[in-house]
Amino acid sequence: MDMEILIISGLSGAGKSKAASFLEDMGFYIVDNMPAAMILKFAEFCAGSSSRYDRVALVYDVRTASSFTELFDVLDKLKTVGACRMLFLEAAPETIIKRYKETRRRHPLRGETDSLEEAVRREREMMEPVKERADFVINTSRTSTAQLRGELLRLFGKEGERGAMTVNVTSFGFKYGLPLEADLVLDVRFMPNPFYIEDLRPKTGLDEAVSNYVFSFQQTQDFMKRLEDLLAFTLPLYAEEGKTSLTIAVGCTGGHHRSVAVTHALTAFIRQQGYSVTENHRDMSRSS
Description:
Elements: E1 4-10, H1 16-25, E2 29-31, H2 36-47, E3 55-59, H3 68-81, E4 83-90, H4 93-103, H5 116-133, E5 136-139, H6 145-156, E6 166-173, E7 184-187, H7 208-214, H8 218-241, E8 245-252, H9 258-272, E9 276-281
Parallel strand pairs: 1-3, 1-4, 2-3, 4-5, 6-8, 6-9, 7-8
Helix pairs in contact: 1-6, 2-3, 8-9
């Protein structure tokens, strides 16, 4: 069976649905609330189907649990014929209680208990054998959404995407508005403006003459040194946080000269740091 099966289990309110959404973005085919008795049949169907089902994640929780013994038997059988692993998500009782009170959702065991606290306690006891069989356990009590995504990417991302972050550097002109997708905005309007040099005005920051002019000033060189130090420090932290895409927008007045030259140089620096990076110039082709 040339396929990967991941069973997502865990406590209600611990983040199974959110994890499933992230895994779907990573290429997994998601099936929610599948009883253990149906997992083997579904695995057989996937194995005989197209490549759409070569990575499958099945969400299994207390609502579908008739017998954990049945689930464990299925796990043992799947492990003998292919890659099958189980992810278990948990959180501290006080965290789960807080989440349920904030969302006003009903805990699946609430109807069988006298209080939400009792429902959370009982489910934790019930699911302990499943947690013990899990290949991976993630505690989401203090895990942000970005951190959860980053951890899933590290554990289950394909080669080349684990821990990867794509950086997009784009130049723009403030006179045309800020790029809405920007995570970081840098204003380089303090730099001497090539627009006022007659020979440079019709050129762009990609032309060597304009670039040489912009970088001939000490203030530009000092700015770039400080900016490179800042990015060398922060880019690994963004990646560690689980951010998969970062957009840096560099702006000058019209988006033709200074921002273009700085964007081009900054792209080269980020590439040297080992990141996948793209370079764009939003307003460079606009008429002045």
